[in-house]
Amino acid sequence: MAPTLFIHGADDTICPPGQSAVAFRELQRRGVATQRVLYPGSGHGINAGNAAHCRDRNERVLKWFKAHMG
Predict the structure, then answer these.
(1) Domain range spanning residue 44?
(2) Which of 9, 31, 51, 54 could form a disulfide with 42 if both were Cys (CB 3.0 to 4.6 A apart)?
(3) What is the count of structural domains for the chain?
(4) Percentage of the chain with pLDDT > 70?
């Protein structure tokens, strides 16, 4: 299985954070490289409403790709 990075807004009402929690735990159980990041106060899509969250998300995604795809 492919390494998987979950990025989730803690206040997401479209895809509740519990959904990524279930998938994250199952991948961990199977020994898949995985990480889950929750952004408090953010909803679906980690939008430009919080510059710090957007910056952190972008840095994490780049680091993840470099580590697992490069």
Answers:
(1) 4-68
(2) 9
(3) 1
(4) 96
